[in-house]
Amino acid sequence: xxxxxxxxxxxxxxxxxxxxxxxxxxxxxxxxxxxxxxxxxxxxxxxxxxxxxxxxxxxxxxxxxxxxxxxxxxxxxxxxxxxxxxxxxxxxxxxxxxxxxxxxxxxxxxxxxxxxxxxxxxxxxxxxxxxxxxxxxxxxxxxxxxxxxxxxxxxxxxxxxxxxxxxxxxxxxxxxxxxxxxxxxxxxxxxxxxxxxxxxxxxxxxxxxxxxxxxxxxxxxxxxxxxxxxxxxxxxxxxxxxxxxxxxxxxxxxxxxxxxxxxxxxxxxxxxxxx
Amino acid sequence: xxxxxxxxxxxxxxxxxxxxxxxxxxxxxxxxxxxxxxxxxxxxxxxxxxxxxxxxxxxxxxxxxxxxxxxxxxxxxxxxxxxxxxxxxxxxxxxxxxxxxxxxxxxxxxxxxxxxxxxxxxxxxxxxxxxxxxxxxxxxxxxxxxxxxxxxxxxxxxxxxxxxxxxxxxxxxxxxxxxxxxxxxxxxxxxxxxxxxxxxxxxxxxxxxxxxxxxxxxxxxxxxxxxxxxxxxxxxxxxxxxxxxxxxxxxxxxxxxxxxxxxx
Lengths: 275, 264
Hints:
The structure holds two protein chains of two kinds.
Chain A: H1 2-6, H2 8-33, H3 37-56, H4 61-82, H5 87-107, H6 116-121, H7 129-165, H8 170-208, H9 215-240, H10 244-274
Helix pairs in contact in A: 2-7, 2-8, 2-9, 3-4, 3-5, 3-8, 4-5, 4-8, 7-8, 8-9, 8-10, 9-10
Chain B: E1 8-15, E2 23-30, E3 35-39, H1 46-53, E4 61-66, E5 69-70, H2 76-80, E6 83-86, H3 100-105, H4 122-131, H5 147-159, E7 165-169, H6 177-194, E8 197-201, H7 205-208, E9 214-219, E10 221-227, H8 234-241
Parallel strand pairs in B: 3-8, 3-9, 6-7, 7-8
Antiparallel strand pairs in B: 1-2, 1-4, 4-5, 9-10
Helix pairs in contact in B: 4-5
C-alpha cells in the first residue's frame, strides 16, 4: 500500500479520479431513473467527432469535446420526440455517424498529436494541469445543476405527465438533464475512455438500485460504491500494472455483482424464513 | 372579471385535424364544488379532453379558462399550480426506489425547489395519506405496494396540495369495488367540504352516478350533459356506442355494485 502513496503519478491521478467518480456516480442516479444509459453510450462515442474537430482545428481537447457532447445530447433531446423518431434509433444513428467522422478526422493526425488508445480506453495517469482545470470547470455546473434540479428530475422520472400538468417546465428540465449528462460523459472519458464511459455512468446507481429507498439514499450509496470501486481500481491497477480505466470499470462491475448477489441472498433467506 | 368565475370553462374546444376531429366544439362549465363524470366509448376523446384542460395538449380551436383566466403560455404555471391531474396507471414507474411519503411529497410545489430550501410539509403529507387510508404505509417502498395501494398513494399525491381542480383518468381501474366506492365517496366529500371541483373519466356510469353532480356523455362531441337524477335518453347511448348495444336496467340489486348504504 505504501508504494501506491509514494508514486507521484498515482497521487496526481487520485484527485481527478475522485472528482470524476463523484460527478459520474451522482449523475448515474438520474441516468438510470430516466433510462438514459444508451444515450450516455451514444454521446460518449459522439465525443470522438468533437475530439477529431479539436485536433484538426487545433482547439483545446476537453472543452471542444464538452461542447460537442452537450450539443449532441441536446439535439437528441429536441429532435427525437418531435420528428416521430425513436430516441434509441436517433442515438444509434448518431453513435455510428459521429464515431466514423471522428476516425476520419483523426486518421490524418500524427501519433504525437493524439493518443487514440487513451481516448478510447481512458488515461487518468496522464492528467495535465490544463486537464485538471477543465475537469473542475466541468464539475461545477454538473454539481450545481444537481443541487437545483435533482428533485424535479427525480419526480419527472417517476411521472412526467403529472409534473407537466402541475405547470412545471418539464421540457426545460429534460434538456438541462441531457446537457448535463453530455458534460458528465466528457469528464468520464478522461478516466474510462469513450468505450468504457457508460460503465462509470450506469454501474454505481445500478449497484445501489435495489438497496436505495429514495433519492438521497440512492445518491449517497452510489457515491460510496463509486468511490470504493474507483480507489480500489486505481490501487489494483498500480499493484498489477493494469490499465487504470478498465480496472476501475471492472471493479465497479464486481461491486454490481456483489450487490445483486447480496440482495438476492438476503431476500432468498427472508423468503425461506417466512415459509 | 365576474366576482365568482367558474373554476373551469371550455369554450368551443376542438382537437385534431379539421376533417377528422378527435374532439369537436366542446363547451363545458364547472363551478366550484362540482363533481363531473365523463363517460364514453374507447377512443371517444375522454383522456384527450383531460390533457387539454391541464395543458398537456394544446386545443386546435377554442380555449380553456381556469378560474376565469385563459390558460396560455404565460399564465400556465400560475393557473396549473392549483390543478392536479391523476393520469391512467402506468406500470413502468413502479420500478423506481421511492418511499411512499416522498411520492406524495412530489405533489407539492415545494418539492421541486432546489435542495437547499428547507421543506416542512410532513403534516400535509400525513393528512393526504390519511385521506386515502394509506398512512400506515408512509415509510414503505412504493415498489412493494399492490396495484390498488399504489393508486391510492398516487391519489394522495394529487390531493396533497389541496388543489382547486382535480382531473382523474379512470382512477378506479386498479381498485376493487369497495375501494372504488370509498374513492368516489372521498371525492364527493372533498367537493362538498373544500369546494374542490372534480372532472373524472370513468367507464362505469352506474358506479359513479350516486356521487357525481352531473355526467357528460362524450364521443367526439358532448352528446348529453345530464344532471344528477336525470335519466340519459336511450338515443344518446345509441349515438355514442352504436346500435348493437343493449341497455339494461340498473338498480340497487345489481350484482357487483356497492352502494354507500351497503358499506360496513
